[in-house]
Amino acid sequence: MTPVEFHSEALLELEEAHAWYEELDELVATAFLTEINRSVAKISEHPESWPKTRDNERRFLLNQFPYSVIYQC
For residues 40 and 55, what is the distance between their CA atoms, to the nearest angstrom? Predict the structure, then answer.
């Protein structure tokens, strides 16, 4: 597995999104974090599986939420 580090701005955006979902519904907020964690695990296992966007960045689209994980490997 490839180690994963979050950019500070990405981590802030994640925290803000989670807080927003938590205001709506705690179960939805939990589902959001679960999907993020699954996505990061998949990226860690197979980092070159998703398409490049620019400058060696890749994009993993979440299934149930309107977010994507942008990463470099």
Answer: 20
pTM for the predicted model, two decimal places: 0.89
Asked if pLDDT for residue 50 goes beyond 90, the answer is yes
For residue 70, give the 3-state DSSP assignment.
strand
Distance CA 20, CA 40 (A): 21
Residue 69 to residues 12, 24, 63, Cα–Cα distance (Å): 13, 22, 11
Question: What angle do the packed helices 26-45 and 8-24 form, to 10 degrees?
Answer: 150
Enter the tokens of residue 72.
């470099």
**C-alpha to C-alpha distance for 37 and 64, rounded to whole angstroms:** 13
